[in-house]
Amino acid sequence: MRLKTLGETTMDEKKAVKWCRLAAEQGDAYAQTNLGVMLWDNLHIVNQRNQQGWGVTRDYKKAVKWFKLAAEQGDAIAQNNLGFMYDNGQGVPQDYKTAVKWYTLAAEQGEAIAQNNLGKMYDNGDGVPQDYKNMVKWSRLAAEQGDVLLDIYYASLTDKRRMRKVQRRRDIDSFNKIS
């Protein structure tokens, strides 16, 4: 299936969806992930006026269905996307523990966005106990893959962690002066 490449002026979105759906229904994990993305929207592929993305109406529940089928076959992108759906309550009830499960499976396969998402879960204590060591571990792994935005996020997390230590030290010093 070929969607649209640089320089092309037309794309038959309905045909792309048709062929993708046929492959997805036959169990192709890559097609299942792509169909999930088409149904989910991912912002940059949706015409915001009419809620249409890739010739299909946005449908989070159907996106979850396709992501789950691909994720259960080990597709790391689908696992990350499914984690995101649970993390944000899109098409499923919000469930941080389930989000962490899917992020972890994808992160362990080296999926940088999943590593970053898992680092955020540890930073916020969503679905897991708050754990700065794991936050740094996963965020660093994501940043080391060369994505500038993930690198900036990792830097901001480590700065935030340093600020927390400084604040704790100040709080302890203030307490000691009062005592």
Number of strands: 3
| Helix/strand class | mainly alpha
Secondary-structure element series: HHEEEHHHHHH
Which percent bin holds the helix content? 55-70%
Keywords:
single chain; 179 residues; mainly alpha; three-stranded antiparallel sheet; 8 helices; elongated
Short overview:
By secondary structure, the chain is mainly alpha-helical.
Question: What is this structure's SSE topology?
Answer:
Blueprint: H1 13-25, H2 29-40, E1 46-47, E2 52-53, E3 56-57, H3 60-72, H4 76-88, H5 96-108, H6 112-124, H7 132-143, H8 148-178
Antiparallel strand pairs: 1-2, 2-3
Helix pairs in contact: 1-2, 2-3, 3-4, 4-5, 5-6, 6-7, 6-8, 7-8
Commentary on this structure:
- There is one protein chain.
- The termini are far apart.
- The relative contact order is 0.08.
- It is built from eight helices and three strands.
- By secondary structure, it is mainly alpha-helical.
- Strands 1-2-3 form a three-stranded antiparallel β-sheet.
- A hairpin with a 2-residue loop joins strand 2 (52-53) and strand 3 (56-57).
- The chain has helices at residues 13-25, 29-40, 60-72, 76-88, 96-108, 112-124, 132-143, 148-178; strands at 46-47, 52-53, 56-57.
